[in-house]
Amino acid sequence: MTDDQPTPAAAHTEPAAAHAESTAERAYHHVRTRLLDGSWPGGTLLSEGVVAIELGLSRTPVREAFLRLQSEGFLRLYPKRGAQVVPIAPGEARSVLAARVLFERAAVDALAERGPDALTAVAAELHAACEHRDPHPVEAGRHFHLTLLRAAGNPVLTSLYETLWDRQIRISAAATATRAHADEDHAEHRALADALAVPDPELARALIGAHADSLLARIA
Q1: Which among 8, 34, 145, 172 would be 20 to 30 A from 130, CA to CA?
Q2: What's the pTM?
Q3: Does residue 164 or residue 45 have the better pLDDT?
Q4: What's the confidence (pLDDT) of residue 145?
Q5: How far apart are CA 123 and CA 51, in angstroms?
Q6: Rounded Cα gap, residues 206 and 120, in angstroms
Q7: pLDDT of 106 strictly over 60
Q8: Nearest-angstrom CA–CA distance, 211 and 103
């Protein structure tokens, strides 16, 4: 056997390690997705065994996923009972949405400094985002708001805004739990796009605040 050929033991352990990593990641992404899209709202008690059966996995990768999500603040683990989804605290929602308003108003201000053409150009992009609605309302909202941030042309601002998104997305999922709420979001998005099309940056700033207040009121 040459030096560059793996030993039988290595050939056996490397795929096993890769398999263990992939199952842990699979469990993590499955649970995380359902936490973020509102499928498992705050207070829900999760069972390692039930999730493992859903995924066709052993409990070990699910336990690893739960531990990782506890470290990220999404779950609270209880020995022999499972994991509870950490509810969104009203104070957390208020703080996250306040930060979101600051970022979005800064984006409008940056566009306004570049003149009316910049505002009407982003309005056209936002109207297009409204017309091509994602079937998942949270993803539709993400696409709409990130379109505004990216149009402002400040990559640092956009990057910081994106780091908030996981925290925002749980709030958005809770606030768009019904079709009526999703339609309300859509109408508020269109109103913002219309204000920028005029263009009326002051009205747009006011609508950004009103939209955040609307989201907060639904989960308060």
Answers
A1: 34
A2: 0.71
A3: 45
A4: 95
A5: 43
A6: 17
A7: yes
A8: 14
- pLDDT at 21 (0 to 100): 59
The pairing of beta strand 82-85 with beta strand 75-78: antiparallel
Q: What's the rounded Cα separation, in Å, for the pair 58 and 26?
A: 12
45-102 pLDDT per residue, tens: 999 999 999 999 999 999 999 999 998 888 999 988 899 998 887 788 899 999 999 9
Fold assignment, 90-219? Four Helix Bundle (Hemerythrin (Met), subunit A) (1.20.120)
Domain edges within the chain: 8-85, 90-219
Give pairs for 1-4: CB < 8 Å, separation 24+: none
Fold of 8-85: Arc Repressor Mutant, subunit A (1.10.10)
| Beta-ladder partners of 82 | 78
Cα–Cα distance for residue pair 46/185, rounded to 1 Å = 30
What is the distance between the alpha carbons of residues 32 and 109, in angstroms, rounded to a whole number?
Answer: 35
Average pLDDT over residues 123-134: 90
DSSP assignment string, 145-207:
HHHHHHHTT-HHHHHHHHHTHHHHHHHHHHHT-SHHHHHHHHHHHHHHHHHHHTT-HHHHHHH
Quote the CA–CA distance of 137 and 202 in Å, as a whole number.
Answer: 27
